[in-house]
Each structure stands twice: as structure tokens, then as C-alpha cells.
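User: My collaborator and I are trying to settle a disagreement about how two of our proteins should look. Neither of us wants to argue from intuition anymore, so we agreed to look at predicted structures for both before our next call. Could you fold the first one, then the second, and keep them clearly separated?

Assistant: That sounds like a sensible way to settle it. I'll keep them separate. The first protein:
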Amino acid sequence: MDKLDERLLWHGDAHIDEATFNRIFGRVLAKLRGSDDFNPTRTAQHSGLDRAFLYAIERGEKGVSLFTLFRIASASKQSPAEIVRLLDRELGSETKTSP
């Protein structure tokens, strides 16, 4: 395997850059936002995170640490594993449609 640029990661046979990863993660959170348990105001209140920060994550402008992922999951009554599964699925869809 060739040395991978540390700003990229492999997903299947495709490379994904950090900006794309953040955008897709944000899209996953935005899709989850449809439930009352996962609205940004409630999630911000219960996670201790700023609502503007949560919106920046949804827009793909900010990335999150594992600690932040667990805070978001806990506040929104979602399993961190389920959020990661959804992210993995979205990454797979993105890489299949990319040239």
C-alpha cells in the first residue's frame, strides 16, 4: 500500500479528505435532527455544546472529537455506534457516486 497523505483516509477503495468527511458527518446529524429528541436547541442544552457549534457541524464547517460525538449522542438519545453506522453508510454512498 502506498503511503497515505495524513489528511486523507481510506473508505473502501476511495480516499476521503477531512472536509468531505466533515460535510458527510454533518449531513448525518442533519438527517437525525428530524426527531424532537435531536433538535439543535435541545441537544445543545443537554450536551453543554453551543447551538451555533452544532449548526457548524451540520454544515460541515467543524469536525468533532470522539468525546463530542458521545456528548451529542447522549443528549440526543442516540447510540454513538448508530451515528457511526449511519456515517459509514453515507461515506459508502458518497464514494460510490464520486468519480
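The second protein, kept apart from the first:
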Amino acid sequence: MDHAPDTSSPQSLHRVVVIGGGFGGVRVVQGLRNANVQVTLIDRRNFHLFQPLTYQIATGALSPGQVAYPLRALFKSAPNVRVLLAEVSGFDLAGRDVLLADVPEIGAPTSVPYDTLVVAAGSSYSYFGHDDWADIAPEVKSLESALTVRSRILSAFEQAELTVEESIRQEEMTFVIVGGGPTGVEVAGQIAELARDTLRRNFRNIDSRDARVLLIDAGDRLLSTFPPSLSAKAARSLERLGVEVMVNHMVVGVEPRAVTVAANGAEHQRIPTATTIWAAGVKASGLADELGRAAGAEVDRDGRVTVERDLTLPGHPEVMVLGDMVRVRDDRGGVVSLPGVAPVAIQQGQYAARLIRDRLENRSTPAFRYRDKGNLATIGRARAVADIRGLRLSGFLAWWVWLGVHLWYLIGFQNRLLVIIQWSISFFTHGRGARLVTEPPPKADEAIKTPGRAARAGAAASASRGRG
């Protein structure tokens, strides 16, 4: 039986549960902070992460605290909002309960009831059926993984300084980025600048400028959502930084010290590298599949559930799903896949808050419509491309636009201030203040980064276990 939202009871406040403290979830809560409702925000992290800048954590340009903001601090002045640090394990749509992972040792509740549910749990990178590659080729979408990538990038230079064999040194100083979208382009440019600028004269046995940075994409050009002219300009900017752009190449194997790529009509090529970073493709949070199965809704191969024009789950108007987790039906009966970018989640979060308030006041709400404000990608210092409603910019001007937009959407005045100060210092000094290796050093028997005979043995063992 379908459930309509219960907005009529005068005995208690309407209960809104929001899952996910990302762009969409935060905008929902912000839109309801002064409404006559009780809001519960559930996230497995206690902070909002500004994901468009996590690659700068991975490359030492910014520190974690500059792009993350505590959720409790964000809503401390909203008495109708409570924040729960918990893991969602499923849904009871008939009983209108969000099921939480059981933590018996602290006696925590196992479910949270709702009148309206908003699910905005985001997405993660897809390894296209090769989940075993994730440990070898980490992504930069999460804070924890970005810190891992930072340690691996910096450790590669440190190990190259220690290494006595030229072949091992070359592997350490080769960096492969898989995926030519905005994140891949930004990571490649940042690593190239790190090697050729920031770390210059930091070492005695190596020249950091000898580092090799490769950006690999299966498509025929970088930044496929941008106009071809801007894609070409981005590629040229990367090449001027020393990045080797490899389009029309598909990664078919990832192992601890190499990647294998295949090009159309060519033999497989094995590229020795100690550091591989993944930025190719995304998949929706597993909660989308949970909702799809619970409601009998359609779920596509990327794990996204199909929702109605007002972002509600089919058959369950009290449940809304946002952001990277959904495809939206259009007014012609078709399905629209919106880009997995922050503006989509922000606009959908604002719409969801408006829909809830309109329902409480018995007002109608038009269907959701996404307003595409354009695309931005930075390549490096004073290098960027921008496509803003047909206005195509590149170089220094596009870079300034990119700076302004990211500062505008960054949450927290303190974070904005810290980031603009850090960027200003970095611009004038060419420095990076967060070049910290936080992972423990590799053990002698691991397949990575020990000089001499141990390194040769480790590399051989890795190759024998690899995929080819």
C-alpha cells in the first residue's frame, strides 16, 4: 500500500530523516532549519566534505580541516536538527523506519522512524568489476583515500631518493592516473607541478623534475563533457606541464608495480609504476539498490535508482532520493541521467526542502528541473578551462572563475578564509604546506619500495601475481 506523507498530526512535529551529509543532504537540512519539523541527519562521518577539492589534499596543497566541516558545528544553531553518527543498513518502507547497523556494546537504537525520508548518500568510484584494484589504485573521492594517495605520492619520491637501481627509481617516479574527467585532469596537473616546481631542489640523489606523469583515458579526448575545443586546450596545458596524455587507451590490468593498457589495434602495453591513482567512473551508493529492491523500482547498471519528476521513489511519495544515486523521469516518460557533480546535488537538495515545506502548507510544487550553470576544471597554477552557458574560457581568466566558484560553495567562513590564504601563499611561493606522509613506511617484505635486491624480488613477485 502506498503511503502519503503524514502532515496532519498536531500532536508531534513532522519527522524528516536525511541520510548523507554531502552537498544534497546538507542543502535539505539548511532549507528546513527554520521549518516546523524535526530533522535527523544521519551520516557515517561527522563532517561535510567538499569533494571537489579532495584532490588538493591528495597532492599536499590543502589540509583535511580546510575542506571538511563538522556537521554538528554546521547545525549547532538549529534546535530542530539533530545529527547522528551512524551507519544505515537498510530500510523498512512499510513501517517507515531507517535501519541502522547494530552496535550492541553501546546500546544504540537499531532504527530511526520518519514521516519523510530523504536519501542523499552519494557515490563511489567504480572499478568496473575489478574491485581488487582498489587497494593498488586508490581514488581521491573520500578523505581517507585522499590521505592515502598523498602518502603514496610523497613516499614514491622518498623511496626514489633511497633507491640505488635506476630501473626501480624510474618506477617510483612514474605516476599513472586513470580517468580523463575533471578529477583525473586536476590530479595529473597537480602531480606534475609538485614534481617540477614544489619539490625542485628538495632532494640530493634525484631530480624530481624527472618524474613521469601519465593520464590515461579510454575515450577519444579528455573532459568529454566539455566542448572539444576546451578539451584540446586542457590537453595542451597538461602537455606543457610534462604530462603524457594517453587517450583511446583502456586500462586492462592493475598490479602493485604496473598497469597494463590496451589501445585500438595495438598490443597490450605494460607500464611500470609504483603509484596508480583511480579517477574513472562512479557507481551509486549501495543504498540506492536497497531502495530499489524495497520499492520494486528500476536500478541501472551504475546502481542508480529511477525516481519520479519530483525526486520521489515510485510508489513512495514520502521518500526522496537525490544526487549521484538517481536517474530522474522527464515529462515525456523517459529517464534523464544528470551529471554527478555538486551543482546537481545542491539544486536537488534545495528542491527537496522546498517540496517538504510546500507539502506541510498544502501547496503544490512543480517538477524538479536542473539548471546547468556550466563546467569547470583546473589544470594547474593559473591554468583552467570553463564552459559557462556557452561562454568558453581558458587560461588565467578561467582559473580565476574556478577559484571564485569553489570558494563560494565551500562551507564555513573559516574554511573559506584558510583556503584563500593557503592558495595565495602557494601562488606566490610555489609551496605546498601539507606534504606529510601519514601512512607507516613499507615493510621490507612488501612488494614496494625497498632498494637493491629486495626491490627486485618484490617487483618480480608483484609481476607474477599481476593481471595482464
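Some points you might bring to the call about the second protein. The domain at 131-280+375-465 is CATH 3.50.50.100 (FAD/NAD(P)-binding domain). The chain is about 35% helix and 25% strand.
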